[in-house]
From TrEMBL:
Domain HTH araC/xylS-type as annotated: residue spans: 194-292
InterPro entries from the UniProt entry: Cupin_2, Homeodomain-like_sf, HTH_AraC, RmlC-like_jellyroll, RmlC_Cupin_sf
UniProt keyword Lyase present: no
Keywords for this protein: DNA-binding, Transcription, Transcription regulation
Name used for this protein in its record: AraC family transcriptional regulator
GO molecular function: DNA-binding transcription factor activity; sequence-specific DNA binding
Keyword Aminoacyl-tRNA synthetase recorded: no
Organism this protein belongs to: Variimorphobacter saccharofermentans
Length: 299
C-alpha cells in the first residue's frame, strides 16, 4: 500500500490557533506526484476535502476513492494515507481537531453518547462524503465555510466554529454512527467493555490475558471475545497488537531509542514478532517508518 515519500508534496497553509485544539491545512500536490498524504495516525479527528483532482485514501485496510468535491471523515487513532488517482495535480483541505473541542469531558452524557463510540470503535466509523447525497452535501459545504472562516482572526469565529462542528457531528451521528450503534447494539453493550478498553489503552505494554479482560466485563472468555469482535470488528488480541504497534510509532517518531528497546517498551518480548506485526499493520519495517518520518520532517 505504501510507497516512498515524494518531496513534491507541498503544504501551503498550516493554521493552528494558539488556544483552540483545532488546525486547518491546505495542501497542493504537483502533477505527476504519486504520494498525496504520507502514512501516519494521530489522536485527533480529521476531515479531508478534495478541492481539485482526485486521490485514493487508505484508512487501515479500507480503500476510498475521492474526486473533486468529495470529503472523508477519519476517526482518531487510525492509520491513513493517500495517493493521487492520476498524473494531474491534487489539492485538498484538512481540518483536524480534538474530540475535546466538542465536549470537554468523558463524564459529560453527550460525550458518552455521541463521541465515545468513535473513540472506542473507530475502525467501524470512517465515512466517505459525496455531494450526491443531500446530508453529505450539507456537511461538505459547512467544511468549506469552516476553512474560509479560519483565515480570519480567531475572535471572529471561535464560537461559530465549535457550533458548526457540533452541527456536523449531529448529522454524522443521526445518519451514520447511530446506525452502527443500532446494528451492533453499541449504545447498551459498549458499557460492558469500557473497563477492558481502558485497561488495554493504559496497560498495553503489560502481559494482558484474556482471562483478566473477561473478568473486567463479568463475561466468560468466549462471551467477551464475541462481544469484543461484534463491537470493534476485530479480535481482542488483534486490537491489542495493533494498539501496541501504533504506540511504538510514537517512539520511532520522537526518540532515538533502538528498535529492540521500543519493542520491549510496547510489550513485545520478541523482536522478530514485533517486526512481523509492524509489517502487518504499517506495511513497512520499523526502520523504514522512522526514515519516512525523518524525510517528511515529522508530522
Amino acid at each position: 500500500m505504501y510507497t516512498s515519500p515524494n518531496a513534491s508534496l507541498l503544504e501551503t497553509v498550516s493554521h493552528r490557533t494558539e488556544f483552540l485544539p483545532i488546525s486547518f491545512h491546505h495542501t497542493k500536490v504537483i502533477p505527476g506526484a504519486e504520494q498525496v498524504l504520507y502514512l501516519h495516525w494521530h489522536n485527533e479527528v480529521e476531515f479531508l476535502l478534495i478541492k481539485q483532482g482526485g486521490a485514493t485514501f487508505y484508512i487501515e485496510d479500507q480503500e476510498y476513492t475521492l474526486q473533486t468535491g468529495d470529503a472523508i471523515f477519519v476517526p482518531p487513532n487510525l492509520l491513513h494515507m493517500a495517493k493521487s488517482l492520476d498524473e494531474n495535480a491534487c489539492e485538498f483541505y484538512a481540518i483536524v481537531f480534538s474530540h475535546n473541542y466538542l465536549f470537554d469531558t468523558s463524564f459529560n452524557p453527550h460525550y458518552v453518547k455521541y463521541v465515545s463510540p468513535v473513540m472506542n470503535y473507530s475502525l467501524r466509523c470512517p465515512l466517505l462524503l459525496t455531494p450526491a447525497v443531500s446530508w453529505h452535501k450539507d456537511i461538505i459545504e459547512t467544511l468549506i465555510k469552516m476553512y474560509e472562516l479560519s483565515q480570519y482572526c480567531v475572535d471572529q469565529w471561535e464560537l461559530q466554529m465549535q457550533g458548526m462542528l457540533l452541527i456536523i457531528w449531529q448529522s454524522i451521528y443521526n445518519n451514520h454512527l447511530s446506525k452502527i450503534e443500532a446494528s451492533n447494539k453499541l449504545s447498551k453493550r459498549s458499557i460492558q467493555l469500557e473497563n477492558a478498553m481502558n485497561y488495554i489503552h493504559n496497560s498495553y505494554n503489560e502481559d494482558i490475558t484474556l482471562r483478566k479482560l473477561a473478568a473486567m466485563t463479568c463475561l466468560s472468555e468466549g462471551q467477551f471475545c464475541r462481544l469484543f469482535k461484534l463491537l470493534t470488528g476485530v479480535t481482542p488480541f488483534s486490537y491489542i497488537n495493533r494498539y501496541k504497534v501504533i504506540k511504538s510509532c510514537e517512539y520511532l517518531e520522537n526518540t532515538q531509542k533502538k528498535i529492540a528497546e521500543i519493542a520491549s517498551l510496547c510489550g513485545f518480548n520478541n523482536i522478530s514478532y514485533y517486526n512481523r506485526e509492524f509489517m502487518k499493520y504499517i506495511k513497512m519495517t520499523p526502520s523504514s517508518y522512522r526514515y519516512m518520518v525523518m524525510d517528511f520532517g515529522g508530522k
